[in-house]
Task: structure prediction
Amino acid sequence: MSEDSLFTNTLNGNLKDDTLKDGRDFYKKLKSKAYKNSITKELYGLFFVSPNKEELVIDKKREQSGQVFLPYEGKRINKVIVDVIPPFKPNFLDSLQKTRIWLEKTANKLHNTSSRSHIKKLLYLKEGDTLDAYNTSENERLIRNLPYIKDAQFIVIPVMGSSELVDLYLLVKDQFSWGFDIDVGSITSTSIELYNRNLYGRGHEIRSGFEYNSSKSQSWGYIASYKIQNIKNSRISTGLTFSNNYKKSLIELAVKKRFETYMTRYAGGLTLSKTMHSNKISPNDPILNEEPLDFNYASAWLGRSYKLKSTKKLAKTQLFSTLGFSSLNFFKRPKVDSDLNKFFHNKRMYLASIALNQTQYFKSNLIYNFGRTEDIPYGYLMQLTGGFEDREFSYRKYLAFEYERATHFYKTKAYFFTKFALGGYFDRDRYEQGNLIIQNKFISRLRKTGRYRFRNFVELNYNIGIRRFPEEFITLNSPTGIRGFSSLEALGTQRLTLKLENMTFTPFMAAGFRFAFFNFLDIGTIGSNQHHPFKNKAYYGVGLGIRLNNENLVFKTIELRFALYPKAPSDFSSPQYGISGEDRPNFSNFSVDGPKVLDFE
Result:
């Protein structure tokens, strides 16, 4: 489709050629209007950017989400128009600005451009609605957070001749829908996966991959999955997964509707799976079993949200109630008895929870991503979960409390997140399988030196198990442990870690990939919960590396890392180096899901 026809279709799906001039005039007016305000000027520069500007590292001015829509609060939405920009189109306006190299042209042809009707159906606003600043920003964030979208922004245009009507223009920048992940541990251990996150331009996702490990009895393995989003405009997504490797054989069906925005009233989920010859019940299990496990798992939950009054215009408070059920039934497992291998008892869990949250966002960049707009949540979540467990040899009650809070310091431009969670079971008068979690994260302001940008990250995490089963333990191999660490000798029921990282965003770019350098120091102690955490054995990890990311691609961030681990345990060698695809870390956005037991991991 030509750019002229794109302009035409943007303004009206059936405009004729003689209205082309009006389309051009609209974008001229749009530019003129955008340049009157610093925020909209920045948004205009984001979407209508010339190639030479893409070479710069630009830190965006922070703004509170929804602030730009407040002047239009209460006006009626006349039209909602969606424009989708291909991933490798450098300029949306100037017909002289073409995609620069043949590879990008070919990629645009291979790319599944997001369907405008699909994007429009995902919105929780429509023509004829009264514009609400918070709801508009929520819808904008919803589209921006889709795994195949680089960025999305609403621009409000008053309707000529009316003081009550406005048009909403949603500008969406696609990511190239095809991607692959590769993890090269060594010559004898490799995995690769190919996927498309936006099949047919409607958010369907297909994955297929294989792995090879010559040291295992089953050296070859595969995984395949297919996910469908927003079935029949119901907001329900579903996915089917198959996998077979030396770790396990799995078939799983998952159906889910999330509490996506403040406008979502009902949510729920259903998961059914069959697992064979696995050494774990779940990837985060605190037990590595030597005997193969065969089991079935089922879970279902349903939730309702209630809007509460809030004194803040751009913050919404909600109350949630959820009910959930899960069942775990083994076919192959270690020998069990009332006091033997309790972790492998068949069980059914019935839970209910009540939660209260307040969330608002501000927008920035160069935090976890390399330039795209990031929605940073701040506010709080309090959740109380209770229920009972019907086990093979016993009957227990469960109770847990979680509290999360995030604060954005406007003067220092820093961000702080804290979490406290405590949960456990009551077997008659005995408290057991308790779990205490304390997490703290600090993100510094963005500092500038010439064309470079620097940011520091600090994490302090503490986890202790209270009267856990004898076979249960935690390690330093988890995301809150020491990065790159992999050992089953360093284990216990109490863990304390301090993680420090410096990230340097550079102006360097090659083939569309931006470069960032990082260095880190991780310190962790782990051992028995009968001792002070500082008396347990300490381990260290120090390293540096490069992260490469192309925001136009759905690829994971490519990370090349070299690290040293002084006092490494005997089952783990130092130094370590490798290349892998890394998921971008996510902020906790105080979302509510189905009720569940606190993970001891």
